[in-house]
Amino acid sequence: MTTWLITGTSSGFGRHLTELLLERGDTVAGTLRDPSRLDDLAARHGDRLWKRALDVTDTARVREVVDQAFADLGRVDVVVSNAGYGLFGAAEELSDAQVERQLATNVTGSIALVRAAVPHLRRQGGGRVLQVSSMGGQTAFPGMSAYHASKWAVEGFFEALAPELAPFGILTTLVEPGMARTGFGGASADVAPALAAYAGTPAAELVRGPGLPLEAMPGDPRRMAAAMVRVAELADPPRRQALGSDADATIRAVLQQRLLDMDAHRDIALSTDADDVLGRPVAA
């Protein structure tokens, strides 16, 4: 059986992953700010659930908990960096503290987790890392600038990290879910106080409008969790894996539009090379 370390297991994808893995007989090291929220699973699955309190913004504690998990369990096959949350509001509406918390949780916390796990994974001869990102790691919507900043940042980190770790048998995948019926954006979201100047603008419409009802969101979180398990067990996992029809359509559209935008002004890009590259005589 496989051993997993998962952050943010109190709800959403983290909770679904933990339930699925325990049901099939795996061992899970689950971390969350309030471990009592896993008491029901601990009662059913006993010592196959190892749980610890962890706020990923406490980077020293991240390293301590990761070290404990590997020491107690002997080996961790898959690390899932899942802890995170959404901050909503126009950039001007956000407070400094809100922006700092968004980046500390979604970016610094994710980086700290992976950096703490890599020495253990390398010493044991390999492993898998899943970083839960979002379709918002490849596209962006008004009213979510800080959230997108966090997801784009972590995707850039993993883009560079993947070839660093591949020689050690450590394979990484960025998981990019679309809208899922997890309650994301509900009570757990952080919404900035409104500024009157933004009334009626795209940011206000997205953040303060009626929003989509849960049943209008296409993603089934339990199926998405099961898909993450399948990806982690592939012999050659993808560097990126979209989840959900909306994520697939949105990411494809934005990538195609970027190429069209580049093509439209490609002459400007190419005009900036040095004379010897352009085949022109080089001035004496």
UniProtKB/TrEMBL annotation:
Keywords: Oxidoreductase
Pfam family, one: adh_short
Cited SUPFAM superfamilies: NAD(P)-binding Rossmann-fold domains
A GO MF label: oxidoreductase activity
InterPro entries: NAD(P)-bd_dom_sf, SDR_fam, SDR_oxidoreductase
Family, as annotated: Belongs to the short-chain dehydrogenases/reductases (SDR) family.
Protein name: SDR family oxidoreductase
Organism whose genome encodes this protein: Pseudokineococcus marinus
